[in-house]
Amino acid sequence: MIEFDRSLGWKALEDRLAATVSPRQRSLIETVIAHSKAECAYDLEGLMATLVEDPQYHFWSFGADRGPKGQQAVRDYYTAFVASGGAVISSPKERIIVDDMSVCHEGTLTTLASGKIATVRGYTVPDGSGHYLLRMRNTVLWTFDDRARAYGEDAYSVILPDAWEPVETSELPDFYVEYLTKIGHPV
Fold it and tell me: By C-alpha distance, which of 88, 86, 67 is closest to 77?
């Protein structure tokens, strides 16, 4: 069984929270932690509760913004993201910067996904029916309203088409197999 720790997405944030004194900055970090946990739990309502009424997402890649704009578009994005089978992520934070209006974090995000999803995302995997660990460099900037709800995400990502590693079916984690089965994409 491969090691795939989805909680890495919030562990470094929890460490930063423990070292943060400012109540405002603590509330911003808590929002990002709640968002990360909801994302990994496929909890759409919990995730949307961390956002303002009219969230604006900016997914920057090669100079183009491909992020959803508005509550319904963001809701639709996350619904499709989970339904696609590509919502299994591990996002350790190598650096976290916090001020009274923003949180910024960066690291190498890893997705566990099918070859079909890998191809759609621009990876050069050899087998669409296989499963892969897909890696990309990712920086996310968050800004917040006065109630510590996020205006959305400004994510800057860079993939290298060959930054993948095959995973044998026998090595897939149980939670991933259960997720795929639940959404109608059995392994």
Answer: 67
The answer to whether the CB of 67 falls within 8 A of the CB of 100 is: no
Residue 141 sits at the vertex; the CA angle it makes with 138 and 143, to the nearest 5 degrees, is: 160
Q: Are 52 and 74 in contact (CB under 8 A)?
A: no
> Pairing mode, if any, of strands 131-143 and 89-90?
unpaired
On whether the CB atoms of residues 88 and 173 are closer than 8 A, the answer is no
d(CA 38, CA 28): 15
CATH number at residue 178: 3.10.450.50
Number of domains, the chain: 1
Regions of the chain short of the pLDDT cut 70: none
Residues 142 and 104: beta-carbon distance below 8 Å: yes
| Residues above pLDDT 90, as percent of the chain | 91
Q: Which two tokens stand for residue 63?
A: 């100079």
